[in-house]
Write a structure and sequence with these properties.
The chain has about 160 residues and is an alpha+beta fold. About 35% of the residues lie in helices and about 35% in strands. A six-stranded mixed β-sheet has the order 2-1-6-5-4-3.
Length: about 160
């Protein structure tokens, strides 16, 4: 029994050195990476009008707000996801400006650019947004609350 302890003790510095060679990823940075990846997947799905795949980012208790629209809920997003693709093509882009994580909650501040093709020419809208993300029971991060507003159009 004594030899096993001696072997373990002599291997401990080697094990510690191998573990410290690769920096440990904090749960906050892992959460941030997952949130950024989820937003990227949403953009990809929306750009191909795959609204069922886009549902993956929303939590079941979602409430979102955009000026002039009724509250956006998960149920409304599910209903919207059943619509067929349209001829109106909008390209979505997002820039994640900041991600703050504290325990099972995260806040994202981001800027969206929506470019829609029309017969008369393209229109572009820039929207600033805050999202509250919560880690779900299965470990996934999903948006539970968001608020967005378009930036004023530049004077012509």
């Amino acid at each position: 029994m004594r030899t096993h302890w001696l072997t373990l003790l002599s291997a401990a510095p080697l094990l510690a050195a191998s573990l410290s060679a690769a920096p440990a990823e904090t749960s906050d940075s892992a959460a941030e990476k997952e949130i950024r990846a989820a937003l990227s997947r949403w953009v990809d799905a929306a750009n191909r009008q795959d609204w069922k795949a886009a549902l993956d980012v929303w939590a079941p208790d979602l409430i979102g707000w955009y000026p002039g629209l009724p509250d956006i809920t998960y149920e409304r997003e599910v209903a919207t996801s059943k619509r067929p693709p349209t001829d109106r093509v909008t390209n979505y882009q997002v820039t994640v400006n900041e991600v703050l994580i504290s325990g099972g909650l995260g806040v994202v501040r981001d800027t969206w650019v929506f470019t829609t093709k029309h017969a008369s020419g393209d229109s572009t809208e820039k929207v600033r947004s805050f999202e509250v993300w919560r880690q779900q029971q299965d470990g996934a991060w999903k948006i539970v609350r968001w608020i967005s507003a378009p930036e004023p159009q530049a004077a012509k």
